[in-house]
Amino acid sequence: MKGPITTSLFSLFKAGPGPSSSHTMGPMRAGCLFREACAALPRELAARAASVQARLYGSLSATGAGHGTDAAILAGLLGWTPEECPPGMLRKLASAPEEKHFMDLGGKRVETGLSRMVHDDVHHAHPWSNTLELELLDSGGNALFSREYYSTGGGFVQWKGWQEPETGMPAHPYSCMDELRAIARNEGLNIHEILLDNETAITGAHRKDVIHRLNMLLDAMEESVRRGLDAGGVLPGPLGVQRKARLLWETAGKRLSSPERFLTALNACAFAAAEENADGGVVVTAPTCGSAGVLPALLYAMRHEMFIGDRAIREGFLSAAAIGFIARHNASIAGAEVGCQGEIGVASAMGAAMLTDALGYSSHIVENAAEVALEHHLGMTCDPVGGYVQIPCIERCAMGAVKAFNASLISRGTDSGAHRVSLDAAIAAMAETGREMSRKFKETSLGGLAVSMVEC
Fold first, then answer.
1. Count of domains forming the chain
2. Mind listing the pLDDT tens digit for each residue in 163-176?
3. Full-model pTM
4. Where residue 64 sits, what CATH number does that domain have?
5. Which residues lie closer than 8 Å to 311 by C-beta, 6 or more apart?
6. How, if at all, do strands 49-57 and 117-119 pair?
């Protein structure tokens, strides 16, 4: 049986450049980690180093070009972290594929660049689909030091020999929704109270600091929507995808019908954040970059359309985190592992929980809303056309936001005791579906819409 969830809120929710948490943020972090590992090597070994080479496997190899993976690894090797990487940096690196770059190794300059990123086998024997090997080579091309990294989704990175970092024990240990529900019932706590207690116990941070950082994340989400609503033009890459958020927002303002106006505005906000992600802008993993339009759209609607207060929204956001934690702990949030059900599906479940909690409903109804949203994404494949996080990813964010809103409506308008499917059951179904799903439907662009659209 799995141990309790010990993940920090700020490991799940991270601000950084899109378009993909597993293909951009994760590889960038791997590049940073490799740079740090090389800097700790014995001086005599480092003195023999001449270059750094990367080998990409699985969906990193298959769709890395459209996801900016090569440039992300390079940025990490040059010392940039996802949190600090300035907007436009990855596009600047990608625009000069033959340019030589140098990684500083304690005064020794080691050559690297996009030409040293090798796209290897899509089908491989490594333990994670998104695998990359980084090698420090001598002048003869012989490996002096290497490390195998795994981008496990949501910007999380592991490596060969990795062990779970030591943290404080959560104040209220749980590993699934059933256990979280029991804590809420037996201790008379709301989900957001449990999450805050656990965060302070796990990280040692003061509650005031945790709340401050949560407010910053919520503001970063809203800012991604605002930037997207202001932007226009065509997204990068060969697909020629036109930004639609601003037009949808203008259309919403012309709608006389209140339901139509609200839904059009919700769609516009989801398009806005998702288009920012596709353009390599700064977004918040919620739980991934590919699904980064869902929660920000609901957040914007809750603040500016439904006029829900910031404290209630923050408490709802903590309930969303609980859903994301449980899904990641017992299945996956990576499209390369379980398909888009783990990205848009989980984001929609998180959004349904956020809205329902913020409106003051019980943890049981919050769970029901999350389950309804996830259930109706089960089996969704991850099939980005051309390997770009554009078609169908942007529209899926909008559909995920609308489904989240509807799941909350259904759960708030029915008898909670009559709900038959638990969130844990839906997550178990997602995990099983992901295991059985063909690899060509898991972020490789080798099946589904990615193929049928090209063939047509």
1. 2
2. 888 888 999 999 99
3. 0.90
4. 3.30.1330.90
5. none
6. parallel
